[in-house]
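Researcher: Here's the sequence for the chain we discussed earlier.
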Amino acid sequence: MTENKKTVEKYIEGFNKSDHKQILSCLTDDVEWVLPGIFHHSGKDAFDKEIENPAFEGKPVIVVTRVVEENNIVITEGTVRAKKKEAEYINLVFCDVFELKTGLINKLTSYLMEIK
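Model: Thanks. This is the structure I predict for it:
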């Protein structure tokens, strides 16, 4: 497994554990996180605040079904199951595009879609 894929794997494991320190250790200081049409965060502080979005509770369950890498880009596809506050669980499919610099995530573009 390449270093870039190891970084992305460590990042996703961190999300499954809601381990902020582990997640943030995978990021550059000037990281960008884009969820098109929803938000665009810049920097580790903004990223950290979104790790446990206040609209949700508990830990998400993220399952990666495919990983593709070319140069410094790693793309993952998979599913997420998360509990909304005072609501039912939500099931999503995702495609995350990670851009890495010196082995750390410099930009993440997340495409999410709810499935019923």
